[in-house]
Amino acid sequence: MHYRSREVVQVRSAYDCDVLVIGGGIVGLSTAYAVTRAAPGTRVTVLEKEQGPARHQTGRNSGVIHSGVYYRPGSLKARYAVRGAAEMVKFCAEYDIPHAVTGKLIVATEKAELPRLHALVQRGRENGIPVRELGPAQIAEAEPEVRGLAAIHVGTTGVCDYVAVARQLAEASGADIRYGADVVRIDRRPDLGAAVRTADGTIVRGRVLVNCAGLHCDETARLAGDDPEMRIVPFRGEYFTLARPELVRGLVYPVPDPAFPFLGVHLTRGIDGSVHVGPNAVPALAREGYGWGVVRPRELGATLSWPGSWRIARRHWRYGAGELRRSVSKAAFTEAVRRLLPAVTPDDLLPAAAGVRAQAVLRDGTLVDDFLIKEGPRTVHVLNAPSPAATASLPIGREVARRALAALAAS
After folding, report:
1. Alpha-helix runs per DSSP H in 16-68
2. How confident is the chain (411 residues) per 10-residue block, as mean pLDDT?
3. Structural element, H or E, at residue 184
4. Residue 188 to residue 67: CA distance in whole angstroms
5. Are residues 183 and 50 in contact, defined by beta-carbon separation less than 8 angstroms?
6. pTM for this structure?
């Protein structure tokens, strides 16, 4: 028995960690946090190519704690967003992270949108979300400058500082967080685990690998030897800041297009009191293409060579043309905002930092509309985790951790 104990220690010491996470966004850090909470003593290392956490999707969104009202009942997005919203508020309160539960309005501005608005009422109720229907007078009472035919008020929506959440998850996890660690090669062996080499030549060995690489998750899966059967197609969301924030009291959204998984141009009063306007959704010319001037030929070539990209273009070209028009024309963007907020002028819209959505697309052009988590030998891949992944990050992290720990136990 004594000999066997020494043998286990010697084998364990050949690894730098038990669970090796690639990606230091909110999902990767939540996974690290969940692993160490569920199995204290488990050694976790997180590799993040940037010099700090949450530099991409996590740190470049509108900061909304989503209620889950939009998502198909029973889907991971619906279940994890509803659960995650409540948990995120509790987490922020526990660690004194700035947050507020503000509620939001979803406003129909045309008669054609009314059936979709009513469908959202039913969907919200099926997902267990408190939803209240409003008429024009009640809209004006809640948001004096907003105009609409009808609206619904969703009480559980809020805002928070997701970068601060990510930092707290990193600290509370007790994991070894390595920034500036850009993964360039993975040697994954089913009988041994994974050895990862970073750009500076460092080798990190883990018994189980977790891929939370966000905008690069499909490439990371292929590096590990797995076929993800999807491709990340990046869509840039462009934002403005409202020069007259007093025009908006809280959060105001249009009725979304059910055929496209983007929420449309909306108004968000953030935790700092500023009002974000946007985003639109245009193709990005690089995985981290935060402006039209950022072009990476290899990444653009990978997008254009994927059959699903062309099928999306054919299927949604009218929608895409409108988004492109709003990207290149401030007047067109203002026109879209004025549907909700008639008082806004082009001078009220000040450019703000853009974000990029990592949207998984299947070969046939299907936009993956739910969170997608797949497993390989000693590996867990998070392959689709755009919005509302920040809201849902705590439940997502627990699910990924559960799978990683199961793989660890079986190894």
Report:
1. 26-38
2. 32 81 98 98 98 96 95 96 98 98 96 96 95 97 97 97 98 98 97 96 98 98 97 96 97 85 85 94 96 96 95 86 91 95 97 96 95 97 97 98 97 83
3. strand 183-189
4. 38
5. no
6. 0.94
